[in-house]
Prior knowledge:
The protein is mostly helical. The chain is 68% helix and 12% strand.
Amino acid sequence: MSGEIDIYGVYIPNLLALMVATLLVSLVVRRALAFFGAYAFIWHRGLFDVALYVVLLQGMSLLSQWWLS
Length: 69
């Protein structure tokens, strides 16, 4: 694995692409949590959202390594 994605001659690091994909997944998960009222049980929403993003990023990273190998 090269560590870069070539999009019409522009090289983008894999981590940046994973971060953007994780942001989209995180937005969907956060919207679902808000819809179901889970944020009523969470003390600090901002810290929870950051932790959720980090956990999702790790999961997406492991999933991409498994998928590409």
